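Human: I would love a firmer grasp of how sequence relates to backbone shape in proteins. Take your time, and here it is.
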Amino acid sequence: MPSQSDVAKLANVSFMTVSRVINGKENVKEETRQKVLKAIEELGYYPNAAARALNNNKTDGIGIVIPHAEFMNVAPYFLDLISSLERNIDKMGYHLVFKLPSSFKSASDYSQLYKERKVDGVIVLAPSVDQWLMKKLITDNVPSVVVYSRDEELDINYIDADNLKGAKEAVNYLISLGHKRIGMVTGSTTLICGRDRIDGYTEALKDNKIDVDKRLVYYGNWHPESGVRAFNYFFGLKDPPTAIFCANDHMALGIMRQAGLNKLKIPRDLSIFGYNDITYSGYLTPPLSTMKQPLEEIGEKAVDILIKTIENPDRPKEKIMLDTKFIKRDSCSFPRENIHIKLRPEDPLEQPELRIGVVYPHPDLNPKPDH
C-alpha cells in the first residue's frame, strides 16, 4: 500500500508539501499542487483519515442519530430524509456517520461521537419531548441540529415541520366537506409531532364551533395495527365518526384494511385522511389524501446550518419551521350518516385497557368507551 512518503518521492517534493496539499493548505504553488495530485492518482494513495483529523482537528464527518429505531419501520419517509441529508453532506465535502440507538448504552454516548473526534457535528432526528438529548448536546458543546423536535427555551439549532398547521388544514378540509364527527388516531405523544397533530385536530374543531369529543380520539403508536384497533374501537361506539384523521399514513392503512373487511366503501361510507405521504399512499384504492413533509428542504437546511455551526460555533442558533403540503386524493368525500356495522368475529371491539399506550398522555384528552 503506497504511503505519503511514496507520493513525495514520485512528485519530487517534501513530505510536508504532500501534507499541505492533502489538507487543503493554501501556501502551495498550483504547479506543485498538480504534481502531488497526479502522483496521488498514479499511486492510488488514500490519505489516512485519522491522521488528517489529528492534524486539522477535523474529521469531515457528520453524525446522523435516530434515537428511536422503530421509525425506520413506521416512518419510511425517514429514509428519504436520510437520502437528502447524505446528498447534501456529500456535496459539502463531508461524509456521513450513521448511528441507531442500539449503538448507545447511555445518554452520554450520544455526544461521544463528537468527543472522540469521530464526527465534527451531529444531526439528531426526532428526539423525545423530555429533551434530555438536546440538553446533553448543549452541555457538551456539540455542534448540532435537531430535526423534528424543538424547545424554544433551549439554545440549539432546530428544523421542524409545522405539524400543528398541517393537521389543522387536514381537519378543516374534512369539516369543509360537511363532517362533524371526526375521529383521530394519534401517534405517540412522546414526540413533538404527535402532540402537534393532536393540537391541530382540536384547534380545527374548536375554530369551527365543533365540540371535542374525547371518545373520538384513539391513542395509537404509528403502526398499522393502531389503525386496525382504532377502527374496531370507533365502530363499537353508538355513533361512530364519518371521517377519521390519522397522524400518519401507516395507521390510515390499518383503517382502510378494516373498512374493506367490514364491507365499508371509502370514501362513500367513511372518509380517511393520512399524514406524511409515504410512497405507496398514492397507489392505494382509493388513493389516500395526506400531508406531505418537505424532506428535501429539511435535509438541505439541516446540513447547511450544521456546517456553518461547525465553522463558527458562536453563531446565533437557527430555529426554522417549514410548511407541509396538502395532497388531495380520493379518500375523502361528503359524510354518510348512520353507519352501523357488525364487526367481524375475528375483529373484537378493542377494550380500553388493551389500547396501545403512550408514555406521556396528551393533556386534556383521555378517550373513554361509549356506554
